[in-house]
Fold Trace amine-associated receptor 7c.
Amino acid sequence: MASDSFQYRALFEYKRERGDDISLQPGDLLTVPKASLVAAPGGLDYQDGDERSPKGWLHGTNERTKEKGDFPGTFVEYVGTVRVGPPPAPKSWPRPVPPTPGGPQPAGAAAASVIYNGLILLDHIRQPDKFTSCHGQCVVVISHISGTVDLFFTFVGPCTVMVVLYMRVFVVAVSQVRVIRLQTAATAAPTAKKSERKAARTLGIVIAVFLMCFCPYYYPAFAGEDTSNSLSYFAVVSWIMLINSCVNPLIYALFYPWFRKAIKLIFTLRILQPHSREAKIL
């Protein structure tokens, strides 16, 4: 006899701890019979809607691996209701649910950011009115020493890591392309060389745009001067630095022909024409 079951999607990886458990990978779909929720510890208090935010252990089937077993409810998100066959016999879970992965990480990152910025602005915190010339004025000045430290921690360091990682990615991409070229002989040689040039051009543009957006902001540190938000060009260089966050994804997207065709359809207003949905962009 068919019965209602609930479907969940795994958000985090879970490795089996006991023989009755099932392992999870992000994106796995899991089916849990409603009877399992009602029969679980605390299930006597079950009410409609509780399935949307499970707190304890669930017993169900991993649709990817077809394995049946237990998994923590805090590692999944509710998807919807499905109709399946009769559920297996319910069981209890006399053990605590493991903590959700990544729980304390945002708090730790926020604390580290507060501590770091507090050290950079230590002089300003000690004497907040030192650079203020009138009541209500808010002037923040970062000394040359603090600016130099900030330069290495937030610009030189990340830039070095980015260049090294991008070079490693490029080397791996080139090696994969060469393997494909050897397997397909001469017919793939022009395509392989084109892919190598495209990968190198993309990485070069990303790094160049990053440097162009961040270098103006760190000009005072390069020039051996104090950094202050009272400078006439401070707002401009700040916006240029922040623009890098939205430009970076566009650089990758613009190298896809289908993306360029879609943008062209939008800006030329051809998307408003009849049968525009039938346009071939792939």
Remarks:
- The first strand starts at residue 3 and ends at 10.
- Residues 3-84 form a domain with the SH3 type barrels. fold (CATH 2.30.30.40).
